[in-house]
Design a protein that fits this description.
The protein has 420 residues and is an alpha/beta fold. It is 39% helix and 18% strand. It contains 13 helices and 14 strands. The strands form three sheets. It has an eight-stranded mixed β-sheet, sandwiched between helices. A hairpin with an 8-residue loop joins strand 2 and strand 3 (72-76). Helix 6 (186-200) crosses helix 13. 43% of the residues are buried.
Length: 420
């Protein structure tokens, strides 16, 4: 290793340690004048250089470099802008700015005050406490239909809380997971919107879907991370378990025990795609996987919500080969995204993970599919396609929920028509 590279890594770790110490005493991470750029690498050399930039703490990929001719979204710290411009000119990657000031967008999309009113609205993003209180309130309001479920505890001791919704006995089960990546706030919000629609909608198609299934709904698979995004760092992605002196957290969607760490993840504890020290090294993934196992014989569908990119993905992430019921999942996916587009014109793509975006292993969806053979398994990458990225304005919560609910109705109509 060249001395200059070693020096840079040491300095980066010192900076990271100082940041960790600073944040633990109550300071909030600020992103004033941080910018997000979109670029498209067209050669393997360009792609390799972007991969090298992933190891620099001042460059944060919102949409990681994976394959040539696929766009990449990169957040750049103000002091690194000259280096960024120089590097882009050197390797000749065209780019465009998507977000001029990340902190300004954070301020616009983060609730100024946290309310504890009796009503749970969908015009703002809510804290974990507010979400959990609403789950408890719904169980109290609908005692014959809703019961709260705790699938385990987090590293910091929080409950991983969800609900089971059941209108009659012996229904097939659908499992819905949200918030596994902490900064993707539209995911828990959409999950909660769907829960409320299942309980209150007067639409005949929604009522038919709701009442013909048992629903296992968990708005946040990563409570520690989600709380941290509200209190300390809005753009935190991982869990909060320490790995070594300098780094905290692993990527909980790279930590599951199916094809773990065989591509599309990192061994670097400081990386945002760090797979963990072993399969299920996150207590969150371990405990939730055990709960899923306990009800796996009752569920024929598993739906995971992420953001952003407007994609409807299905297994697998380790291969482009068309395995198991690929043809059915693709056809059901096409029906679903067609229905989703009807209301607001929002366009999605569907396909398996490795083909549609990039290789990614150790995900919850692949684990459920590969371990239990659950036939209907999808991951939504919700709005948008990059204008706001992870900082989707709260005004888009309801439209996102509405169109997603439309797609779920179409998804399960088509799945049932195909004999699932």
């Amino acid at each position: 290793m060249k001395y200059s590279n070693l020096y840079r890594i040491i300095m980066w770790k010192i900076i990271m340690l100082c940041a960790i110490v600073g944040l633990t005493v109550g300071q909030k991470a600020l992103y004033d004048n941080y910018k997000v750029f979109r670029m498209i690498p067209t050669t393997k050399t360009q792609l390799e250089i972007l991969h090298e930039m992933e190891n620099d703490g001042a460059f944060s990929f919102w949409d990681s470099p994976s394959i040539v001719n696929k766009h990449v979204d990169l957040m750049v710290a103000p002091h690194k802008l000259p280096e960024f411009y120089e590097k882009m000119a050197e390797i000749r990657i065209p780019y465009q700015m998507h977000i001029d000031d990340v902190q300004k967008l954070i301020d616009e999309t983060t609730p100024k005050t946290q309310t504890r009113s009796k009503s749970f609205d969908f015009i703002s993003y809510h804290t974990l406490d507010d979400i959990y209180k609403n789950l408890d309130d719904l169980a109290e309001q609908y005692p014959d239909k809703v019961q709260t479920v705790v699938a385990g505890k987090t590293y910091e001791g929080r409950e991983i809380k969800g609900v089971k919704v059941s209108f009659k006995a012996d229904n097939h089960g659908i499992f819905i997971e949200g918030g596994i990546h902490a900064r993707e706030w539209i995911s828990p919000a959409t999950t909660m919107y769907i829960l409320h629609q299942l309980l209150t909608s007067n639409d005949t198609d929604v009522r038919a879907l709701a009442e013909s299934h048992d629903w296992y709904i968990f708005p946040s698979f990563n409570p520690d991370g989600y709380v941290y995004t509200h209190t300390t760092n809005r753009l935190w992605r991982k869990t909060r378990k320490p790995y070594g002196l300098f780094c905290k957290g692993s990527d909980p969607n790279r930590n599951w025990g199916y094809r773990w760490n065989t591509g599309g993840s990192s061994n670097n504890p400081c990386s945002e795609t760090f797979a963990g020290s072993a399969p299920f090294s996150c207590i969150e993934t371990k405990s939730v996987s055990e709960y899923i196992k306990s009800i796996s014989d009752r569920c024929y569908a598993y739906i995971s919500f992420h953001s952003y990119s407007q994609l409807l993905l299905f297994p697998y992430g380790h291969t482009r080969d068309h395995l198991e019921n690929y043809d059915d999942l693709y056809a059901i996916g096409k029906k679903s995204i067609t229905a989703l587009k009807q209301r607001y014109g929002t366009s999605y793509k569907t396909g398996n993970i490795a083909e549609t975006i990039y290789t990614a292993t150790g995900s919850s969806m692949d684990y459920v599919k590969g371990t239990f053979g659950t036939p209907i398994t999808y991951t939504y990458e919700l709005r948008d396609t990059g204008r706001y990225g992870f900082l989707l304005p709260p005004a888009q919560i309801i439209p996102t929920g509405e169109e997603t609910m439309d797609s779920l109705v179409a998804m399960f109509k088509e799945a049932n028509a195909r004999g699932y």
